[in-house]
Structure formats: C-alpha cells, structure tokens
C-alpha cells in the first residue's frame, strides 16, 4: 500500500488502453490544469496502461521522464480494474478520474479541491462537452448533461470526469469490475443515495470529451444511445459493452 502520510492533496487517475492518438493531448491539458493549481507540487498524475499494444507505453515513458507521471501497468484488462489499481497506487486524499480522451477544465483541479476542502462535497461530476464533432456532438452531450440532473442515483453517471474523496472511495467503492459500463455507480450513485447533499454536479465547469464512439462508426450516435439504454435497464447490457473504437495513432518518425 502506498504511504499517503506525506502525499499530494490530489491524484489524477487515468486508465489508458491503446490511447496513443489522444492521450498526449489529454496529459497536456492535465499539466495545464496543474499549473492553475495553488500548489502544483500537490498534484500527482497516475496513468494505468491497460494492456496497450500501440504507442501508448512509449508515450507514457516520455511523460514519466519529462513530467513525473506515474505509470502503472494493468495485467488484467478493464477500465474499472485499471481505475482501482490506479487508486491503490495513488497517494492523494482527493481522487480525480479522467478518461484518456477527456480534457479537464483549465481550472478544474483547483475547483475540485475547493469543492471538497471548502464546501465539504465528497464526490461529484462536471458537465461534459464535445472535444470534437459538430452540432450532433453538442446535442449529444447536452442531452446527457440534462439526464444527469435528474434526482435519481443512477443519473449520477459517466466517469469521464468525476472525483471523490479518499474516504468516500473507501466507503462506497471500488469501481465495479464486473461491468464495462456503469462501473462508477457504486461510488457516485452510492454516495448520492446515502448523502445527496454531499454530492455535487458542478455545471459551472465543462470537461471536453471525444465523440469517437459516435463519430467513427456508422450510425454511431444511434448505436451508442441504444447501448447506453440497454446498460441502464439491464445488468447484461453493462457487462456486454465493448469499446474498441480509437482514432488512428499518429505516425512516429524513428531516426
């Protein structure tokens, strides 16, 4: 177990599998958000390589050497397992979870620390917006942002940009490793069900997320919507959810 007695205030945990195309931009956005933090040294970044077979490991070696990013390898695939492993290696008392294709708000980390330390929130989410795509992408995220406002525990979903305190994770977590979608419900829905006033949906901040699941496949919006709907009503839908869609990785010149 990590020694957290002198650890940072905040840990950013990112699961990554075959994310060479987008992970670099995500890490740059995280580094910019760290620069906005009151004490940049009080934030650590933990990336869990979830069995990548593309250029992700090489990219992470670079960020580990240049920026001190902590790289962890996950032997058994799955975003939930990767996030849980990242938490075990993280030392922060506030845990921020980002998807590898999601950029936090510029002042997002500072804002999360304020929400937890000064306002007493134990977990929360931000709005999500379109990193790419046009009107359809904006409508997509606008719809789901509205759904997440419903006063229902399971409406507090989508872990692309979420956070919780270490104590809340220990009480309600971990991420559900049996499923491929909705794995965040034990934490977010669990806290909202038990202590709704300690959960915050911070609609003043927007994290930008890739629309690759919808944009890079035929009928992607409809297919993804139906998958989400199946996952909401059926446990099998949460288990049998496959996400293999990735942008093409940039070509790297080897000199």
Can you tell me about this structure?
Strands 3-2-1-4-7-6-8-5 form an 8-stranded mixed β-sheet, with helices on both faces. The radius of gyration is 17 Å and the shape is globular. It has 10 helices and 8 strands. The chain has helices at 23-35, 56-67, 79-89, 108-117, 135-147, 166-172, 185-194, 212-215, 220-233, 235-239, and strands at residues 10-16, 43-49, 70-73, 94-98, 102-103, 123-130, 161-165, 199-209. The longest helix is centred in the C-terminal third of the chain and has 14 residues, at 220-233. It is α/β, with parallel strands linked by helices. Helix content is 39%, strand content 19%. The model has no long low-confidence stretch (mean pLDDT 91). Strand 2, helix 2 and strand 3 (70-73) form a beta-alpha-beta unit.
Write a brief caption for the model.
This protein has helices at 23-35, 56-67, 79-89, 108-117, 135-147, 166-172, 185-194, 212-215, 220-233, 235-239, and strands at 10-16, 43-49, 70-73, 94-98, 102-103, 123-130, 161-165, 199-209.
Attribute tags:
255 residues; 8-stranded mixed sheet; 8 strands
Overall mean pLDDT: 91
Helix/sheet category: alpha/beta
Largest sheet: 8 strands, mixed
Number of helices: 10
């Amino acid at each position: 177990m990590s020694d957290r007695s002198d650890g940072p205030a905040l840990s950013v945990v990112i699961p990554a599998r075959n994310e060479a195309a987008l992970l670099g931009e995500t890490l740059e956005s995280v580094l910019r958000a760290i620069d906005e933090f009151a004490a940049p040294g009080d934030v650590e970044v933990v990336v869990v390589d979830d069995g990548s077979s593309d250029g992700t490991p090489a990219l992470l070696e670079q960020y580990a050497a240049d920026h001190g990013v902590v790289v962890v390898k996950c032997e058994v695939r799955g975003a939930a397992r990767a996030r849980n492993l990242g938490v075990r290696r993280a030392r922060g008392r506030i845990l921020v979870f980002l998807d590898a294709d999601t950029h936090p708000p510029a002042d997002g980390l500072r804002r999360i620390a304020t929400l937890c330390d000064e306002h007493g929130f134990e977990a929360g989410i931000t709005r999500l917006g379109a990193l790419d795509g046009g009107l359809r992408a904006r409508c997509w995220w606008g719809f789901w942002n509205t759904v997440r406002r419903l006063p229902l525990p399971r409406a507090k979903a989508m872990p692309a940009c979420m956070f919780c305190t270490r104590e809340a994770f220990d009480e309600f977590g971990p991420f559900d490793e049996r499923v491929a979608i909705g794995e965040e419900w034990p934490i977010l829905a669990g806290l909202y069900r038990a202590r709704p006033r300690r959960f915050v949906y911070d609609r003043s901040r927007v994290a930008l997320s890739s629309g690759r699941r919808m944009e890079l496949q035929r009928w992607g919006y409809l297919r993804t919507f139906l998958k989400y709907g199946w996952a909401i009503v059926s446990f099998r839908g949460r288990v049998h959810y496959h996400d293999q869609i990735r942008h093409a990785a940039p070509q790297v010149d080897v000199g």
